[in-house]
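I'd like us to work through together how a protein chain folds, taking it slowly. To get us started, please write out a protein record for me. Label the sequence line and the structure token line clearly, so we can match residues to local backbone shapes. Once you have written the record down, we can walk along the chain together.
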Amino acid sequence: MKRGLIVTGGRRPSRELLESEIRWADGIICADGGYDALAHVPEKLKLVIGDFDSSHRLAELKEKQLPIEVLPPMKDETDTEMAMTRMLEYEPDEIHILGGTGSRWDHSVATIFSMEAYLDEKAKITMIDENNRLRMVGPGTYAIEKLGFHYVSFVPVTDAITISTEGFKYEVDHLKLSRKKTRGVSNELLKDAGKVTLHEGKMLIIHSKDE
């Protein structure tokens, strides 16, 4: 599998975004409530995993004879983290996460910061919703495309990072950004593509647009 899609139980994606991601993916894993976002069961569905605190969902999955993994309600990992663990077993090149953000800030923040654990994996992991696209990266040079978004922000995960940019409205050369400051927010590409070099530290690359 080259491209894996994880659908979690946060903010439900639009039908257009969901169908686009289903077409993109080679395989799909749903984390518990993420299954409810599916209007139909795609052939690409590999697993539905979770503690299934909603009994009707588990009954429906069993009736349809879908692949499920039932987790204990009292566990150390969230359903999303376990879905990620199972997806990585397929050794994909890319993983997209839908529903990773929502009304529960604790789940949203925990999911974002848990991405740090996978920086050494070969898979490129990206969280996506209607207005945002988020990826955590370590040192390296990264091609940045507009992808239909207006802003690109560089947010430190470590205490400080050093970055250089090419092709942006606000160009920087070995600029040191502190996690305590917001200077890296809301840059803009001048053309369809540019690049950023992260010289040290870890950061989030966030594409965003207003509703």
About this structure: The chain has a mean pLDDT of 93. The CA atoms of residues 44 and 210 lie 32 Å apart. Residues 15-24 form the longest helix (10 residues).
